[in-house]
Design a protein that fits this description.
It is a single chain. The protein has 63 residues and is mostly helical. It is 81% helix and 0% strand. The chain is built from four helices and no strands.
């Protein structure tokens, strides 16, 4: 797989990797792993946010 980053993304990744004393590949893989493994929790949090922020609208739509 090839991952094409913008120059800004590449610069940010490089800077983070240098700060952490790791390779860009290690940082990118850790970020991807966190993203895919945490999806159910993020989805539940997003649903709860919509439920609480739009409670009035959802109640009106349910009538």
């Amino acid at each position: 797989m090839n991952l094409r980053l913008t120059e800004a993304e590449s610069d940010a990744l490089r800077a983070r990797a240098e700060q952490e004393g790791r390779s860009m590949q290690e940082v990118a893989r850790a970020a991807i792993n966190a993203y895919v493994s945490d999806r159910p929790a993020r989805l539940r949090a997003a649903i709860e946010k919509v439920r609480s922020e739009d409670a009035e609208l959802l109640a009106r739509l349910a009538r």
